[in-house]
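Backbone-to-sequence.
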Protein backbone atom coordinates (compact mmCIF):
# COMPACT_ATOMS: atom_id res chain seq x y z
CA UNK A 1 0.00 0.00 0.00
CA UNK A 2 2.80 2.38 0.90
CA UNK A 3 4.50 1.42 -2.33
CA UNK A 4 1.36 2.34 -4.32
CA UNK A 5 1.02 5.69 -2.57
CA UNK A 6 4.70 6.45 -3.10
CA UNK A 7 4.49 5.52 -6.79
CA UNK A 8 1.37 7.69 -7.33
CA UNK A 9 3.05 10.64 -5.63
CA UNK A 10 6.11 10.34 -7.86
CA UNK A 11 3.94 10.17 -10.99
CA UNK A 12 2.00 13.30 -9.95
CA UNK A 13 5.25 15.12 -9.13
CA UNK A 14 6.75 14.22 -12.51
CA UNK A 15 3.60 15.33 -14.39
CA UNK A 16 3.46 18.60 -12.45
CA UNK A 17 7.12 19.28 -13.15
CA UNK A 18 6.58 18.61 -16.84
CA UNK A 19 3.56 20.96 -17.00
CA UNK A 20 5.54 23.63 -15.15
CA UNK A 21 8.43 23.30 -17.61
CA UNK A 22 6.02 23.57 -20.56
CA UNK A 23 4.53 26.77 -19.10
CA UNK A 24 8.00 28.21 -18.60
CA UNK A 25 8.89 27.30 -22.16
CA UNK A 26 5.68 28.98 -23.35
CA UNK A 27 6.61 32.08 -21.39
CA UNK A 28 10.08 31.98 -22.94
CA UNK A 29 8.56 31.76 -26.42
CA UNK A 30 6.24 34.67 -25.73
CA UNK A 31 9.19 36.76 -24.59
CA UNK A 32 10.35 37.17 -28.24
CA UNK A 33 8.58 40.27 -29.61
CA UNK A 34 9.02 42.58 -32.57
CA UNK A 35 7.80 46.11 -31.96
CA UNK A 36 7.53 48.55 -34.94
CA UNK A 37 7.21 52.22 -34.17
CA UNK A 38 5.76 54.92 -36.39
CA UNK A 39 9.24 56.31 -37.01
CA UNK A 40 10.21 52.85 -38.33
CA UNK A 41 12.30 52.06 -35.18
CA UNK A 42 12.37 48.29 -34.60
CA UNK A 43 13.58 46.54 -31.42
CA UNK A 44 14.07 42.80 -30.96
CA UNK A 45 14.07 41.50 -27.36
CA UNK A 46 16.04 38.25 -27.01
CA UNK A 47 15.73 35.77 -24.14
CA UNK A 48 17.79 32.86 -25.37
CA UNK A 49 20.31 33.54 -28.13
CA UNK A 50 21.24 29.86 -28.30
CA UNK A 51 17.70 28.81 -29.15
CA UNK A 52 16.84 31.73 -31.48
CA UNK A 53 20.21 32.36 -33.09
CA UNK A 54 18.97 31.22 -36.50
CA UNK A 55 16.02 33.54 -36.28
CA UNK A 56 18.11 36.52 -35.22
CA UNK A 57 20.21 36.24 -38.36
CA UNK A 58 17.17 37.45 -40.28
CA UNK A 59 16.83 40.69 -38.31
CA UNK A 60 18.75 42.60 -40.98
CA UNK A 61 16.44 44.21 -43.47
CA UNK A 62 16.98 44.20 -47.22
CA UNK A 63 19.04 47.36 -46.90
CA UNK A 64 21.61 45.48 -44.82
CA UNK A 65 20.83 47.42 -41.62
CA UNK A 66 20.76 45.49 -38.33
CA UNK A 67 17.43 46.49 -36.79
CA UNK A 68 18.27 45.25 -33.25
CA UNK A 69 18.47 48.19 -30.87
CA UNK A 70 18.67 50.48 -33.91
CA UNK A 71 16.68 53.68 -34.56
CA UNK A 72 16.29 54.40 -38.25
CA UNK A 73 14.65 57.51 -39.69
CA UNK A 74 14.12 57.96 -43.40
CA UNK A 75 13.30 61.13 -45.32
CA UNK A 76 12.29 61.54 -48.92
CA UNK A 77 12.70 64.85 -50.79
CA UNK A 78 11.27 64.30 -54.26
CA UNK A 79 13.46 61.55 -55.69
CA UNK A 80 16.24 62.12 -53.14
CA UNK A 81 16.39 59.89 -50.05
CA UNK A 82 18.24 60.25 -46.77
CA UNK A 83 18.55 57.51 -44.11
CA UNK A 84 19.63 58.46 -40.55
CA UNK A 85 20.74 55.50 -38.41
CA UNK A 86 21.32 55.70 -34.65
CA UNK A 87 23.02 52.61 -33.20
CA UNK A 88 25.13 51.97 -30.12
CA UNK A 89 25.40 55.67 -29.32
CA UNK A 90 26.57 56.68 -32.81
CA UNK A 91 24.69 58.31 -35.70
CA UNK A 92 25.30 57.79 -39.40
CA UNK A 93 23.68 59.36 -42.45
CA UNK A 94 23.29 57.49 -45.71
CA UNK A 95 22.20 58.84 -49.10
CA UNK A 96 21.20 55.86 -51.25
CA UNK A 97 21.94 55.78 -54.96
CA UNK A 98 19.31 56.02 -57.65
CA UNK A 99 19.27 52.27 -58.26
CA UNK A 100 18.81 51.33 -54.59
CA UNK A 101 15.33 50.60 -53.36
CA UNK A 102 14.29 51.62 -49.86
CA UNK A 103 11.23 50.97 -47.79
CA UNK A 104 9.19 53.99 -46.68
CA UNK A 105 6.60 53.00 -44.14
CA UNK A 106 6.03 49.62 -45.72
CA UNK A 107 5.93 51.02 -49.27
CA UNK A 108 8.86 50.70 -51.65
CA UNK A 109 9.85 53.33 -54.16
CA UNK A 110 8.13 51.31 -56.83
CA UNK A 111 4.89 52.60 -55.36
CA UNK A 112 5.92 56.19 -56.03
CA UNK A 113 5.99 57.89 -59.40
CA UNK A 114 8.56 60.64 -59.79
CA UNK A 115 7.73 63.17 -62.51
CA UNK A 116 10.22 65.76 -63.65
CA UNK A 117 8.59 69.17 -63.95
CA UNK A 118 8.55 70.05 -67.67
CA UNK A 119 10.72 73.01 -68.59
CA UNK A 120 9.97 75.66 -71.17
CA UNK A 121 12.17 75.40 -74.25
CA UNK A 122 11.99 78.17 -76.81
CA UNK A 123 12.87 78.28 -80.49
CA UNK A 124 15.85 80.44 -81.48
CA UNK A 125 18.95 78.29 -81.82
CA UNK A 126 19.41 76.84 -85.28
CA UNK A 127 20.34 77.50 -88.89
CA UNK A 128 18.09 79.73 -91.02
CA UNK A 129 18.03 80.67 -94.69
CA UNK A 130 15.92 83.16 -96.58
CA UNK A 131 15.75 86.24 -98.77
CA UNK A 132 16.43 89.83 -97.82
CA UNK A 133 15.69 93.18 -99.39
CA UNK A 134 15.11 96.90 -98.91
CA UNK A 135 12.02 98.97 -98.28
CA UNK A 136 11.65 102.69 -98.89
CA UNK A 137 10.34 105.03 -96.17
CA UNK A 138 6.88 104.41 -97.69
CA UNK A 139 7.32 100.63 -97.11
CA UNK A 140 7.56 100.02 -100.84
CA UNK A 141 9.78 97.42 -102.50
CA UNK A 142 10.11 99.52 -105.64
CA UNK A 143 13.29 101.60 -105.64
CA UNK A 144 12.74 104.91 -107.43
CA UNK A 145 14.65 108.16 -107.89
CA UNK A 146 17.40 108.43 -105.27
CA UNK A 147 16.95 104.77 -104.27
CA UNK A 148 17.26 103.40 -107.80
CA UNK A 149 20.92 102.37 -107.50
CA UNK A 150 19.96 100.08 -104.58
CA UNK A 151 17.51 98.03 -106.63
CA UNK A 152 18.20 94.33 -106.01
CA UNK A 153 18.10 91.01 -107.77
CA UNK A 154 15.71 89.59 -105.24
CA UNK A 155 16.27 85.96 -106.20
CA UNK A 156 19.99 86.19 -105.42
CA UNK A 157 19.82 88.42 -102.36
CA UNK A 158 19.85 85.92 -99.57
CA UNK A 159 20.02 85.84 -95.81
CA UNK A 160 21.81 83.18 -93.77
CA UNK A 161 21.65 82.99 -89.96
CA UNK A 162 23.50 80.82 -87.45
CA UNK A 163 21.87 81.20 -84.04
CA UNK A 164 24.39 79.38 -81.88
CA UNK A 165 23.27 80.22 -78.34
CA UNK A 166 19.88 80.14 -76.63
CA UNK A 167 18.47 80.68 -73.15
CA UNK A 168 14.82 80.03 -72.31
CA UNK A 169 12.94 81.29 -69.26
CA UNK A 170 9.48 79.88 -68.56
CA UNK A 171 6.84 82.30 -67.31
CA UNK A 172 3.67 80.20 -67.24
CA UNK A 173 4.47 76.46 -66.84
CA UNK A 174 6.19 75.14 -69.98
CA UNK A 175 4.00 76.83 -72.60
CA UNK A 176 4.82 80.54 -72.29
CA UNK A 177 8.22 82.07 -71.81
CA UNK A 178 11.00 84.40 -72.86
CA UNK A 179 13.80 83.45 -75.24
CA UNK A 180 17.16 85.11 -75.77
CA UNK A 181 20.58 84.13 -77.07
CA UNK A 182 23.19 85.01 -79.67
CA UNK A 183 23.39 84.62 -83.42
CA UNK A 184 25.30 85.64 -86.53
CA UNK A 185 23.42 87.10 -89.50
CA UNK A 186 24.97 87.08 -92.99
CA UNK A 187 23.36 89.29 -95.64
CA UNK A 188 24.08 89.43 -99.36
CA UNK A 189 22.44 92.23 -101.35
CA UNK A 190 22.92 91.63 -105.09
CA UNK A 191 22.48 94.83 -107.10
CA UNK A 192 20.50 94.73 -110.29
CA UNK A 193 22.43 97.58 -111.88
CA UNK A 194 26.11 97.31 -113.01
CA UNK A 195 27.54 99.42 -110.23
CA UNK A 196 28.91 99.29 -106.71
CA UNK A 197 29.22 101.62 -103.72
CA UNK A 198 31.72 104.29 -102.80
CA UNK A 199 31.98 107.09 -100.25
CA UNK A 200 32.28 110.66 -101.53
CA UNK A 201 32.58 113.56 -99.09
CA UNK A 202 31.34 111.32 -96.29
CA UNK A 203 28.22 110.17 -98.15
CA UNK A 204 27.67 106.73 -99.67
CA UNK A 205 26.72 106.95 -103.35
CA UNK A 206 26.70 104.76 -106.46
CA UNK A 207 29.99 104.04 -108.23
CA UNK A 208 29.08 104.00 -111.95
CA UNK A 209 32.65 103.82 -113.27
CA UNK A 210 32.29 100.14 -114.18
CA UNK A 211 29.17 100.88 -116.25
CA UNK A 212 30.96 103.65 -118.15
CA UNK A 213 34.07 101.55 -118.88
CA UNK A 214 33.60 99.79 -122.27
CA UNK A 215 36.29 97.24 -121.39
CA UNK A 216 34.36 95.94 -118.38
CA UNK A 217 31.12 94.04 -118.59
CA UNK A 218 29.71 93.74 -115.06
CA UNK A 219 28.49 90.21 -114.35
CA UNK A 220 27.42 90.67 -110.73
CA UNK A 221 27.81 93.12 -107.89
CA UNK A 222 26.85 92.79 -104.24
CA UNK A 223 27.07 94.24 -100.75
CA UNK A 224 27.74 91.77 -97.92
CA UNK A 225 27.33 92.40 -94.20
CA UNK A 226 27.75 90.37 -91.01
CA UNK A 227 25.92 91.26 -87.79
CA UNK A 228 25.96 89.83 -84.29
CA UNK A 229 22.38 89.58 -83.02
CA UNK A 230 20.80 89.35 -79.58
CA UNK A 231 17.04 88.56 -79.50
CA UNK A 232 14.40 88.99 -76.84
CA UNK A 233 11.31 87.01 -77.77
CA UNK A 234 8.02 86.16 -76.12
CA UNK A 235 6.95 82.69 -77.18
CA UNK A 236 3.64 80.85 -76.90
CA UNK A 237 3.37 77.11 -77.43
CA UNK A 238 0.08 75.41 -78.29
CA UNK A 239 -0.23 71.69 -77.40
CA UNK A 240 -1.04 69.39 -80.29
CA UNK A 241 -1.21 66.00 -78.60
CA UNK A 242 2.52 65.68 -77.83
CA UNK A 243 4.86 67.84 -75.78
CA UNK A 244 7.63 67.31 -78.32
CA UNK A 245 5.48 68.54 -81.18
CA UNK A 246 3.77 71.84 -80.48
CA UNK A 247 2.73 74.77 -82.56
CA UNK A 248 4.79 77.76 -81.45
CA UNK A 249 4.40 81.46 -82.12
CA UNK A 250 7.00 84.01 -80.99
CA UNK A 251 7.55 87.71 -81.49
CA UNK A 252 9.93 90.30 -80.16
CA UNK A 253 12.93 92.46 -80.93
CA UNK A 254 16.44 91.78 -82.16
CA UNK A 255 19.39 94.03 -81.37
CA UNK A 256 22.39 93.84 -83.65
CA UNK A 257 25.89 95.19 -84.12
CA UNK A 258 27.70 95.24 -87.45
CA UNK A 259 31.04 93.41 -87.34
CA UNK A 260 31.96 93.31 -91.06
CA UNK A 261 30.96 94.72 -94.44
CA UNK A 262 32.35 94.64 -97.97
CA UNK A 263 31.47 95.02 -101.64
CA UNK A 264 32.37 92.70 -104.51
CA UNK A 265 31.98 93.29 -108.23
CA UNK A 266 32.78 90.72 -110.91
CA UNK A 267 33.27 91.72 -114.57
CA UNK A 268 34.48 90.18 -117.82
CA UNK A 269 35.41 91.54 -121.20
CA UNK A 270 38.80 92.92 -122.13
CA UNK A 271 39.65 93.60 -118.52
CA UNK A 272 38.26 90.48 -116.87
CA UNK A 273 38.47 90.33 -113.10
CA UNK A 274 36.84 91.20 -109.78
CA UNK A 275 37.24 93.97 -107.26
CA UNK A 276 36.54 93.84 -103.52
CA UNK A 277 36.13 96.81 -101.24
CA UNK A 278 36.29 96.56 -97.45
CA UNK A 279 34.76 99.60 -95.86
CA UNK A 280 31.97 100.47 -93.45
CA UNK A 281 30.21 102.46 -96.24
CA UNK A 282 28.46 104.49 -93.54
CA UNK A 283 26.35 101.46 -92.66
CA UNK A 284 24.57 101.69 -89.30
CA UNK A 285 26.79 100.13 -86.66
CA UNK A 286 23.92 99.37 -84.28
CA UNK A 287 20.40 98.45 -85.24
CA UNK A 288 17.26 96.87 -83.92
CA UNK A 289 14.60 94.83 -85.64
CA UNK A 290 11.11 93.46 -85.11
CA UNK A 291 10.80 89.72 -85.69
CA UNK A 292 8.09 87.06 -85.68
CA UNK A 293 8.40 83.28 -85.86
CA UNK A 294 5.92 80.45 -86.21
CA UNK A 295 6.34 76.73 -86.71
CA UNK A 296 5.19 73.19 -86.20
CA UNK A 297 7.49 70.19 -86.25
CA UNK A 298 9.76 70.46 -89.32
CA UNK A 299 8.14 73.56 -90.80
CA UNK A 300 9.31 76.83 -89.22
CA UNK A 301 9.37 80.28 -90.78
CA UNK A 302 10.63 83.69 -89.66
CA UNK A 303 10.35 87.31 -90.77
CA UNK A 304 12.36 90.32 -89.56
CA UNK A 305 12.05 94.01 -90.35
CA UNK A 306 14.64 96.61 -89.26
CA UNK A 307 13.27 100.09 -88.51
CA UNK A 308 16.90 101.23 -88.35
CA UNK A 309 17.97 102.51 -91.81
CA UNK A 310 20.73 100.70 -93.70
CA UNK A 311 22.94 103.79 -93.74
CA UNK A 312 23.57 106.28 -90.96
CA UNK A 313 21.22 109.24 -91.03
CA UNK A 314 22.22 111.79 -93.67
CA UNK A 315 25.04 109.60 -95.01
CA UNK A 316 23.20 107.54 -97.62
CA UNK A 317 19.87 106.69 -99.18
CA UNK A 318 17.14 105.97 -96.68
CA UNK A 319 16.19 102.31 -97.01
CA UNK A 320 15.23 99.72 -94.43
CA UNK A 321 16.37 96.06 -94.57
CA UNK A 322 14.06 93.07 -94.11
CA UNK A 323 14.39 89.30 -94.36
CA UNK A 324 12.04 86.33 -94.57
CA UNK A 325 12.85 82.64 -94.69
CA UNK A 326 12.85 79.12 -93.30
CA UNK A 327 14.49 77.41 -90.35
CA UNK A 328 16.60 74.67 -91.92
CA UNK A 329 17.89 73.10 -88.72
CA UNK A 330 16.66 73.66 -85.18
CA UNK A 331 18.98 73.13 -82.20
CA UNK A 332 16.22 73.47 -79.58
Amino acid sequence: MKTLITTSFLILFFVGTTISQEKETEVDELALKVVEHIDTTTTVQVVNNDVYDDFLKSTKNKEGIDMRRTDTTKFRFGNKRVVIIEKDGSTSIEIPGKDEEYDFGGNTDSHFTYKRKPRFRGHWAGVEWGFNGFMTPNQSLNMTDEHKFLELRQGRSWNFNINFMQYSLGIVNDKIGLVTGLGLEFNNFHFRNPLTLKVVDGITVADSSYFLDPNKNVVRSKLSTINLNVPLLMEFQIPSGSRRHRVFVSAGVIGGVKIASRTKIVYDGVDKGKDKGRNDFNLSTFRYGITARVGYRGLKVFATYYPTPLFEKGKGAEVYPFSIGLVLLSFS
